[in-house]
Amino acid sequence: MSSSVAGAGEESGAAAPQGPAPVERCKGVNGLEKVVLREVRGSSAEVYLYGGHVTSWKDEHGEELLFVSNKAIFKPPKAIRGGIPICFPQFSNFGHLEPHGFARNKTWTVEADPPPFPVPISSKAYIDLILKPTEEDVKIWPHSFEYRLRIALGPGGDLMLTSRIRNTNADGKSFSFTFAYHTYFSISDISEIRVEGLETLDYLDNLQDRARFTEQGDAIVFESELDRIYLGTPSKIAIIDHEKKRTFVVRKGGLPDAVVWNPWDKKAKAMADFGDDEYKRMVCVEAAAIEKQVTLKPGEEWTGKLELSAVPSSYYSGQLDPDRVIQDSTVPEDSIS
Ligand code: BG6
């Protein structure tokens, strides 16, 4: 059974709408609840309430832009392999919690009441989710929080995620966290793509005990396993896929770091929920806040924004001079609020 949802979570009681509904709630794999967003020009996205996890983002021609493994396990407590897992309150094992935190394997709720911030003006294809800790969560991370996640499709098919995390501790205690939008992009061939916008920056190499290095190449290319946390990155990063004649542009706000990851063949084989050759068709570029933890006092709120677009090939190639883009403002407020 499926139902249309008007705006941020209101059930539509009207007769069948003309054309597909901008927001539809239905069942996904293994009966897990999901939300389908559809923009009038044809782009779409799918979000599982399990994990608050985007599992699909298609352009107006119906082409899938995110990678999800054919072996992904859509069954709690395993996080879905691919799409956009939310890493909170911890990225990787920077801390004592399970790697990448618990938000990616909790079931989120569609906000019943309009959230305390404006609705998007340019699109009806959005959904507001909320995550609050359970008693079980409090045992492993003793804090009270409200995490509001808005997922929206823009009129041009851009995918926008806004995280608002508020400290609701009643005991006067601050809390700190690290965070990432662990985005898996679908690409033609890992050996053929380049990631631009991170050149000359320092990074921590996860494959060398997080030793610090400075990027020397004029772009990141892939010849073997790569797992790095780039620090103090500009607000725009490009993934250039010549074969697909497509460039992904990652724009971010409130998220200074960027993780770049490809497991390559050996690690691919070691992952039960990932096909042996699938590493060739994916790359993770993850907007993140890792090196400096985010700290919130009670009543304080943090916002982290991600905006993804897919543009025709070479559009950004050679234009991502870090000195130039570093001065760029972060993702504009009105584009995704
Ligand atoms: C990346 C990390 O973000 O996620 C890698 O940098 C990690 O070190 C990868 O292997 C996948 O993590 P997981 O927990 O989803 O298997």
TrEMBL record:
<dbReference type="InterPro" id="IPR008183">
    <property type="entry name" value="Aldose_1/G6P_1-epimerase"/>
</dbReference>
<keyword id="KW-0413">Isomerase</keyword>
<protein>
    <recommendedName>
        <fullName>glucose-6-phosphate 1-epimerase</fullName>
        <ecNumber>5.1.3.15</ecNumber>
    </recommendedName>
</protein>
<dbReference type="GO" id="GO:0005737">
    <property type="term" value="C:cytoplasm"/>
</dbReference>
<dbReference type="InterPro" id="IPR011013">
    <property type="entry name" value="Gal_mutarotase_sf_dom"/>
</dbReference>
<dbReference type="GO" id="GO:0030246">
    <property type="term" value="F:carbohydrate binding"/>
</dbReference>
<dbReference type="InterPro" id="IPR014718">
    <property type="entry name" value="GH-type_carb-bd"/>
</dbReference>
<dbReference type="GO" id="GO:0005975">
    <property type="term" value="P:carbohydrate metabolic process"/>
</dbReference>
<dbReference type="GO" id="GO:0047938">
    <property type="term" value="F:glucose-6-phosphate 1-epimerase activity"/>
</dbReference>
<dbReference type="Pfam" id="PF01263">
    <property type="entry name" value="Aldose_epim"/>
</dbReference>
<feature type="active site">
    <location>
        <position position="182"/>
    </location>
</feature>
<feature type="region of interest" description="Disordered">
    <location>
        <begin position="1"/>
        <end position="23"/>
    </location>
</feature>
<feature type="active site">
    <location>
        <position position="286"/>
    </location>
</feature>
<comment type="similarity">
    <text>Belongs to the glucose-6-phosphate 1-epimerase family.</text>
</comment>
<dbReference type="InterPro" id="IPR025532">
    <property type="entry name" value="G6P_1-epimerase"/>
</dbReference>
